[in-house]
């Protein structure tokens, strides 16, 4: 039991509802005359099952009065972690965006340098590691497998 | 300064001509809009291995599969028409627009050569009560929707082959789609369906072992895999010509000089012994066409499928 | 007999052996990297092999194939990201073992049981190829549906934590598998007008994202400096004491189950279009039910890891069976191998065993040799590989992030796949935090398509008749087994009330 079970159940139900609405539009009953279900049949039924299961989840949550493990609890020593998490995610987004603007190897190098620096690794280690990682990837993928990271 | 301004356009013109004259000057990338290891991929790789020798530049083969070859073709369509980004174009190019998958069609490309064709082969099990195409058609007429024909997916070339039989002979079959030709052949081997209309090379193992018999080839000419089997045209049905094919092209507005260079090299490459041997081993029909011939062929095919596919009732906008 | 001796002589030729080794090493790297599949490796190397004679060329391909499946387990154990889809089940127990500091042992089990599975599969190929192929070729849409259904019942077995949440996770995965082109009618479903979603939510990028990136993000969030130092020194201690090979008692206690799962793997492998992923998940799930210590599964059970690694390698023997006897490819990798054989002028099918018998013998011997080879290489490098990751966690984080991006791109040269992986990573993080197991989700995504397509295909073939599912013997049996599996806990409760286990 988690405190967030109501919220997560709600999210899943929303997803299921979206699928079910789309499925309804495709047609549930047979499109062809030989009794084969239409394109919407399967997603609709599965969506229904997901709704049902999540309803059970909601009921359990209500019965437990919303008590349970907090999903995002943090002890004192973990207090810096959310910041690290967001920085990592932001860096990844940066990598993906930069890749479109300049080429992949450069973007990846910047990513490694930035991340290692943020995590407080030594400058020399940072440089060597980043160059090595990106270099090996380039060698293996671009040279050996001929998979060039061009978009 | 003035002198430079006067010289500049002249220099640019010379540089441009020199560049065109020097084509190709660096690595050429060719996209295969299908997964590695398949027919399209292997054909392209053997083709480029020859082209590298002829043009003396390295070729890079990149696989960009997805959405019935749309993703790979869309990628090349959007590249600069400088001759350094080419594409392997399969028959799907003339089908995806009418299937409603994308807006791309063979008109977006400048062809410089066709390599091979693969006809559909109507194949049934050895114990089936039909020994000829006519017997098959007669049974289908008497029992509408009784015969279950497997194909490699709804809207695929092999599905259309079976549909072409329906249109030309006026019969009604039940189409059973699979995720590719191989599962369909497996289903036939396990006697789960009654027939398939896929490529001859896919059923070759079964034919050789005696499990299958091929009733007709639904293409332009007989297949090297089963040379004794007549084409539908030879059997009197003129309108059943459904072929897979593979050709090479550059984006549409590529300058004609560059296409000419590619065409000449491709003619040599495709007609080389290595490529001919490869096609023979794999059961494809070596069918070279030059740029003009292929362009005309593509237009004809596009018109054919534009007409055929909506009739199947699966096209969607 | 003379044929076999000849074959051994051929295969031990230094040139052949060299190619085999190259293949095994190459396969080890390709298999370990998430996003690179054995099929890709084989496809890329095949043109290269045409320059050489058939035995040498095939030695390289077979070495690569076997080794890649084994190596997929390495990253599954070390960073919770399967190197190939066939190794998904190895993450269930492999990664917990690594976290407990028993990484070396886990890697050793991966090597040994992978080799065992590969050899088992090859022996089946030697002695039972025709009967096995005849049996599995009869599998029609009804049987595939029943198989997919059976695989999906493993959802409950695969959920760590609340079973209800596991089911929610699983069914949502199934729901997501409906995105894309309808398999029967070729209608676009839920594709939001994007060409990139026409093929659906691709499995591999999602797997890499949920298991790899998701795990990294979770680790960053949960990181405890106080515990970290202790865990690290603990891992070092375990590694240096480190046994890499399980002791005899452990091997003996799981012997029966591993042999059964090897058989399951081979049979599933022989079924066209069913591969290591389904085989290992079914093996793991079933083994958990039959095991004497089911509570350990998912928490670092040696037996759990052993059965999943044995079954994904024994799949290869089964796939070769169908490929050689009938010329039907079991999956993309065997399709490429068939192409290779045709290039050498050989036609897979019954004729292989008569006209080209010496080459078939070569293939069998190469399979055995490849397994022995990676067994040796794997054991020797197991400790070293585990040590490599006894490094600072932050190094792992950065590397895994980059590798996930690279791997998900390499699959299809597609930027969209990378975005998909990234989204899956974020979702994987949220799943873990809110108590939803990612395993059932992946299972649903994997099997949902198979379930739906075959349900409807079976109905097309039977022309609307639902009775076909129980009229066909194999499908009927599978369905009964499925129902029993689901109902067993209840039945057990009735038959053995209170005093029972």
Give a written overview of the molecule:
The complex is a heterotrimer of chains A (151), B (317) and C (501). Chain A has 2 domains: 5-63; 80-144, no CATH class. The longest helix of chain A is centred in the middle third of the chain and has 23 residues, at 41-63. Chain A is flat, with a radius of gyration of 24 Å. Chain A has helices at 5-26, 41-63, 81-101, 104-118, 123-144. Chain A has 151 residues and is mainly α. With 317 residues, chain B is α/β, with parallel strands linked by helices. Chain B folds into 2 domains: 26-117 and 244-312, D-Maltodextrin-Binding Protein, domain 2 (3-Layer(aba) Sandwich); 118-218, Periplasmic binding protein-like II (D-Maltodextrin-Binding Protein, domain 2, 3-Layer(aba) Sandwich), CATH 3.40.190. Chain B is 44% helix and 21% strand. Chain B has 11 helices and 10 strands. Chain B has helices spanning 2-21, 39-55, 70-77, 96-99, 133-142, 157-169, 181-189, 200-209, 256-270, 273-282, 291-312, and strands at residues 28-32, 59-63, 85-90, 109-125, 148-151, 174-177, 195-198, 212-218, 243-251, 285-289. In chain B, strands 1, 2, 3, 4, 5, 6, 7, 8, 9 and 10 form a 10-stranded mixed beta sheet that branches. In chain B, α6 (157-169) links the parallel β5 and β6 (174-177). In chain B, α2 crosses α9 and α2 runs antiparallel to α10. The mean pLDDT of chain B is 88. With 501 residues, chain C is mostly helical. Chain C has one domain (2-492). Helices cover 77% and strands 1% of the residues of chain C. In chain C, a hairpin with a 6-residue loop joins β1 (180-181) and β2 (188-189). The radius of gyration of chain C is 22 Å and the shape is globular. The termini of chain C are far apart. The relative contact order of chain C is 0.18. The model of chain C has no long low-confidence stretch (mean pLDDT 85). Chains in contact: A-B, A-C, B-C. Chains A and C meet through α1, α2, α3, α4 and α5 of A and α8, α9, α18, α19 and α20 of C.
């Amino acid at each position: 039991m988690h405190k967030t079970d109501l919220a997560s159940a709600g999210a899943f139900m929303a997803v299921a509802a979206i699928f079910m609405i789309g499925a309804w539009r495709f047609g549930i009953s047979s499109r062809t005359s030989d009794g084969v279900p239409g394109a919407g049949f399967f997603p609709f039924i599965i969506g229904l099952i997901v709704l049902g299961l999540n309803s059970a989840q909601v009921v359990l949550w209500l019965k437990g009065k919303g008590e349970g493990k907090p999903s995002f609890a943090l002890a004192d020593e973990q207090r810096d972690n959310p910041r690290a998490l967001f920085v990592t995610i932001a860096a990844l987004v940066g990598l993906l965006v930069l890749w479109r603007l300049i080429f992949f190897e450069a973007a990846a190098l910047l990513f490694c340098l930035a991340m290692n620096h943020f995590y407080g690794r030594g400058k020399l280690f940072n440089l060597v590691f980043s160059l090595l990682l990106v270099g090996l990837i380039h060698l293996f993928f671009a040279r050996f497998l001929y998979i060039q990271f061009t978009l | 300064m003035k002198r430079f301004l006067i010289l500049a356009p002249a220099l640019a013109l010379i540089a441009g001509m020199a560049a065109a004259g020097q084509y190709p000057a660096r690595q050429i990338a060719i996209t295969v809009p299908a997964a590695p290891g398949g027919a399209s991929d292997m054909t392209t790789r053997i083709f480029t291995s020859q082209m590298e020798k002829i043009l003396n530049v390295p070729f890079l083969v990149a696989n960009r599969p997805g959405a019935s070859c749309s993703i790979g073709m869309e990628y090349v369509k959007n590249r600069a028409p400088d001759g350094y980004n080419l594409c392997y174009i399969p028959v799907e190019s003339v089908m995806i627009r009418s299937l409603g998958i994308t807006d791309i069609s063979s008109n977006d490309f400048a062809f410089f050569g066709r390599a091979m064709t693969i006809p559909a082969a109507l194949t049934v099990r050895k114990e089936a009560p039909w020994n000829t195409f006519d017997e098959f058609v007669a049974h289908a007429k008497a029992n509408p929707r009784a015969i279950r024909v497997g194909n490699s997916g709804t809207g695929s070339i092999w599905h259309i082959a079976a549909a072409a039989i329906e249109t030309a002979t006026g019969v009604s079959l039940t189409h059973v789609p699979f995720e590719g030709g191989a599962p369909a052949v497996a289903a036939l081997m396990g006697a789960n369906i009654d027939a398939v209309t896929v490529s001859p090379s896919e059923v070759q193992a079964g034919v050789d072992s005696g499990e299958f018999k091929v009733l007709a080839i639904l293409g332009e000419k007989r297949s090297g895999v089963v040379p004794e089997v007549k084409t539908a045209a030879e059997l009197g049905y003129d309108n059943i010509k459904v072929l897979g094919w593979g050709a090479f092209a550059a984006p549409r507005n590529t300058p004609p000089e560059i296409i000419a260079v590619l065409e000449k090299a491709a003619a040599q490459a495709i007609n080389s012994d290595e490529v001919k041997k490869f096609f023979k081993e794999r059961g494809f029909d070596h069918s070279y066409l030059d740029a003009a011939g292929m362009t005309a062929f593509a237009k004809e095919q596009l018109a054919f499928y534009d007409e055929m596919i909506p009739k199947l009732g699966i096209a969607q906008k | 007999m003379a044929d076999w001796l000849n074959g051994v002589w051929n295969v031990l030729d230094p040139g052949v052996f060299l190619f085999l080794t190259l293949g095994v090493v190459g396969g080890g790297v390709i298999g370990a990297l998430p996003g690179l599949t054995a099929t890709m490796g084989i496809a890329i190397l095949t043109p290269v092999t045409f320059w050489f004679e058939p035995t040498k060329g095939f030695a390289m391909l077979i070495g690569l194939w076997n080794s890649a499946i084994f190596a997929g387990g390495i990253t599954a154990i070390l960073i919770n990201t399967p190197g190939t889809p066939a190794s998904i089940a190895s993450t269930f127990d492999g990664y917990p073992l690594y976290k407990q500091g028993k990484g070396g042992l886990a890697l050793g089990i991966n090597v040994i049981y992978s080799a065992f599975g590969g050899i088992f599969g090859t022996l089946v190929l030697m002695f039972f190829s025709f009967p096995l192929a005849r049996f599995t070729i009869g599998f029609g849409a009804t049987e595939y549906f029943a198989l997919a259904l059976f695989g999906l019942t493993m959802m409950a077995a695969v959920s760590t934590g609340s079973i209800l949440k596991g089911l929610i996770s699983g069914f949502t995965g199934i729901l997501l598998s409906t995105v894309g082109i309808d398999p029967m009618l070729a209608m676009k479903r839920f594709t939001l007008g994007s060409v990139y979603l026409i093929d659906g939510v691709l499995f591999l990028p999602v797997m890499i994202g949920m298991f790899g990136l998701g795990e990294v993000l979770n680790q960053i969030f949960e990181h405890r400096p106080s515990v970290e130092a202790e865990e690290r020194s603990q891992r070092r201690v375990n590694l240096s004491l480190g046994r890499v090979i399980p002791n005899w008692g452990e091997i003996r206690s799981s012997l029966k189950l591993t042999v059964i799962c090897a058989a399951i793997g081979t049979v599933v492998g022989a079924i066209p279009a069913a591969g290591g992923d389904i085989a290992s998940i079914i093996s793991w799930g079933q083994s958990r039910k039959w095991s004497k210590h089911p509570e350990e599964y998912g928490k670092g059970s040696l037996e759990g890891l052993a059965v999943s690694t044995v079954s994904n390698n024994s799949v290869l023997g089964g796939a070769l069976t169908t490929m050689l006897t009938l010329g039907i490819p079991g999956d993309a990798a065997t399709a490429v191998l068939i192409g290779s054989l045709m290039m050498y002028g050989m036609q897979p099918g019954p004729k292989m065993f008569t006209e080209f018998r010496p080459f078939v013998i070569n293939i069998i011997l190469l399979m055995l040799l490849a397994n022995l080879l990676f067994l040796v290489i794997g054991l020797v490098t197991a400790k070293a590989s585990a040590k490599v990751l006894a490094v600072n966690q932050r190094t792992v984080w950065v590397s895994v992030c980059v590798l996930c991006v690279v791997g998900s791109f390499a699959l299809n040269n597609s930027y969209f796949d990378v975005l998909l992986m990234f989204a899956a990573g974020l979702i994987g993080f949220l799943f873990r935090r809110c108590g939803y197991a990612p395993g059932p989700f992946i299972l649903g995504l994997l099997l949902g398509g198979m379930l739906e397509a075959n349900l409807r295909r079976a109905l097309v073939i039977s022309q609307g008749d639902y009775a076909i599912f129980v009229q066909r013997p194999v499908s009927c049996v599978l369905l009964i087994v499925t129902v029993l599996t689901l109902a067993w806990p209840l039945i057990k409760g009735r038959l053995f009330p209170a005093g029972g286990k």
